[in-house]
Each structure stands twice: as structure tokens, then as C-alpha cells.
């Protein structure tokens, strides 16, 4: 878990950056098929998707997911196994982000005006969840946690070295 603003920014940038990149590619491929235009279509949709995802993550989904996790789900046993806390929050984050980003995706594609908005949303939501959950738990989450762990280890070593210098 990030312990300060710098760590939160790096962790969110990695998490959102990778998730949005892969999910944009997946959704564009699902909507348009795989063609030579796919990379350009991904790059075209990526910046706005990333911006929206970061805002939703930091201001809405993250605080709600962490609040629900620590208030209703995480117990004393889980507090002893920090990996369980990470998995719990990751699952809640994926559920929240898929819920909101699926709506964002169909809005951007102009699908809110057709007569089957609920069916389109439900289809989009389930297909996004099928990819986003394993992507988060098996690939992106471990990468982001590894980078965060290395940052925290380096920060601890630096603080330790500074303490030793002050004592000398």
C-alpha cells in the first residue's frame, strides 16, 4: 500500500496506465476488430481514458473501495496477511472501475442513444470484468506492487543512511 503522496501517484500511474492501455486495446478490438488501424485507434482513445480513469480512481473508486474494505471486509486475520488486503482492495477497485469505465466507454462510443442502453451496458460490463479482473490480479497488480515495494525499500535505505549520518 502506498504510504505517501509520491508513492500514491507512482502506484496509480502504473496501475491506471497499464490497465487503461490493455483495456482500451481490448475494447477497440472488440468493437472494430483487429486490423492495421488498431494501434492508432488505441493511441487515439488512450489519453482521455487514462485521464478519466485516474480521476475516478483517486476521487471516487479508490476511497470507496478502501473504505468498504476496511470497514466491512478486512478482519484481524487479513491484517496479518497484507497480500489479502491487497487482493481485497484490488477486486473492489476492479468492480468499481469496470462499472464506471464501461459507462464511460459506451458514452464515448455514442451508444447511450440507442434503444438498448441497459443491454449494451450489461454486455460491456461483463466482458470488461472478464478481462480486467485477471489482468489486475495476475499481471498489472503484481507489477505495480513490485515497483512500489522497490520504491519503499529504497526510501527505507535512504532514511536509514541519513539516520546513521546524523548519529555520526
TrEMBL record:
<protein>
    <recommendedName>
        <fullName>Integral membrane protein</fullName>
    </recommendedName>
</protein>
<feature type="transmembrane region" description="Helical">
    <location>
        <begin position="9"/>
        <end position="28"/>
    </location>
</feature>
<keyword id="KW-0812">Transmembrane</keyword>
<feature type="transmembrane region" description="Helical">
    <location>
        <begin position="82"/>
        <end position="105"/>
    </location>
</feature>
<feature type="transmembrane region" description="Helical">
    <location>
        <begin position="48"/>
        <end position="70"/>
    </location>
</feature>
<dbReference type="Pfam" id="PF11391">
    <property type="entry name" value="DUF2798"/>
</dbReference>
<keyword id="KW-1133">Transmembrane helix</keyword>
<dbReference type="InterPro" id="IPR021529">
    <property type="entry name" value="DUF2798"/>
</dbReference>
<feature type="transmembrane region" description="Helical">
    <location>
        <begin position="125"/>
        <end position="144"/>
    </location>
</feature>
<keyword id="KW-0472">Membrane</keyword>
Amino acid at each position: 500500500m502506498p504510504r505517501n503522496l509520491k508513492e500514491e501517484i507512482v502506484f496509480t500511474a502504473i496501475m491506471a496506465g497499464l490497465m487503461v492501455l490493455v483495456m482500451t486495446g481490448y475494447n477497440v478490438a472488440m468493437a472494430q476488430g483487429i486490423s492495421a488501424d488498431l494501434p492508432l485507434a488505441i493511441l487515439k482513445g488512450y489519453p482521455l481514458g487514462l485521464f478519466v480513469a485516474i480521476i475516478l480512481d483517486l476521487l471516487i473508486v479508490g476511497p470507496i473501495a478502501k473504505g468498504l474494505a476496511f470497514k466491512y471486509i478486512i478482519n484481524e486475520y487479513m491484517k496479518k496477511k497484507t497480500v489479502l488486503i491487497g487482493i481485497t482492495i484490488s477486486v473492489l477497485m476492479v468492480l468499481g472501475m469496470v462499472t464506471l469505465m464501461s459507462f464511460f466507454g459506451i458514452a464515448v462510443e455514442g451508444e447511450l442513444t440507442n434503444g438498448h442502453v441497459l443491454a449494451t451496458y450489461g454486455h460491456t460490463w461483463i466482458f470488461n470484468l472478464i478481462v480486467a479482473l485477471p489482468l489486475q490480479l495476475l499481471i498489472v497488480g503484481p507489477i505495480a506492487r513490485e515497483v512500489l515495494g522497490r520504491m519503499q525499500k529504497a526510501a527505507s535505505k535512504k532514511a536509514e543512511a541519513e539516520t546513521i549520518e546524523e548519529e555520526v
